[in-house]
Amino acid sequence: MTTLPDIAFDAIPRAALPALLRRMPKAELHLHIEGSLEPELIFALAQQHGVALPYADVEALRRAYAFTDLQSFLDIYYAGASVLLQAADFEAMAMAYFERAAADNVRHAELFFDPQTHTERGVPVSTVIEGLSGAVARAKQELGVSASLILCFLRHLDEASAFATLEAALPFRQHFIGVGLDSSERGNPPEKFARVYARCRELGLHLVAHAGEEGPPAYIETALDVLKVERIDHGVRCVDDPALVQRLAREQVPLTVCPLSNVKLCVFDALDKHNLKALLDAGLKVTINSDDPAYFGGYVNANYTETFAALPALTARDAYLLARNSFEASFAGDADKAVWIAELDAVFREAAARA
Ligand code: HPA
Ligand code: ZN
């Protein structure tokens, strides 16, 4: 467990939290870059490329963002991504995200991307990675935001497609640090990709997977035991298995929780019903992230501030711990982590001194 620095967290009044949550440095570890594609950019790219959209305008598209579950979202999310054709489109999408991230004091972001969403439409993986890696380099240079890419396999597709995706991406191995697993969870358990992950492990890639968003706690266990992932994306349904909760706490497995996403996709009925505080109190290594911010109503700072507003039991100490966890659970180097955590400590020390 993280030993907290000697800061007078209890002196910080709750009224100071929204500004502090926005101001504190943080990492974002669960962000689908295709889920940062705002309706305005969808329409601009559609017009540029002559792609027909089944929505009259930006407002009509936004009105369609009323989801009942994960699948109802994924259908619209894959349709939105159909306007991404050239490397410049991927770069523009990612730069728009990085500008929002910089404004939210994100120091480091690990971005998921879904090659199969694009290769199935005839867009080569080289185009996708060229555009995204160009934006990653510019984010560092122009905005001071550190970033890396994580290639996700679509779990509703088969093992052979995942292997083919990996092979097609390997010439660009230096541009991504790991692999993940996303798309329709129920009925597509982690073990479907056991051999793909074993290969990725041999290649020295970092391993993560979505599990326990809509799927059962057993999927979290097989992600850990069969795929050997280092983090669990979402994981909130672990609470259905108390022994698993104990294990996640003991092993300090990071969970990349996405509160606004969970409400939009009806994983929880409302933000004040979210189990994030309970997970923290059980000693789990929880982080806060935005998932698909263009679709779910807020970037990472909105996820922090709205969750703290909805859950009054969350404290300044929790705010510190969430940001600290985001750096510790990242795949960044130890030297970078130390710099960001020192900055985090300074921000909280100042807030406590001012109180
Ligand atoms: N879950 C699964 N797949 C996804 C998600 C998600 O929240 N966002 C984008 N692809
Ligand atoms: Zn996700």
Number of helices: 17
Under CATH, the homologous superfamily reads Metal-dependent hydrolases
SSE class:
alpha/beta
CATH class: Alpha Beta
Architecture per CATH nomenclature, i.e. the level-2 architecture: Alpha-Beta Barrel
End-to-end CA span: 27 Å
Poorly predicted residue ranges = none
Helix content: 40-55%
Shape: globular
What composes the largest sheet?
8 strands, parallel
Number of domains: 1
CATH topology: TIM Barrel
Mean pLDDT: 98
Small-molecule binders: hypoxanthine, zinc ion
If strands are numbered along the chain, what order do they take across the biggest sheet? Answer: 1-2-3-4-5-6-7-8
Brief sketch in words of this structure:
This protein is an alpha/beta fold. The chain has helices at residues 17-23, 39-49, 58-63, 70-80, 87-103, 115-119, 125-143, 159-169, 194-202, 217-227, 242-250, 259-264, 276-281, 293-296, 300-310, 316-328, 334-354, and strands spanning 26-32, 106-113, 146-154, 178-182, 206-211, 231-234, 254-257, 285-288.
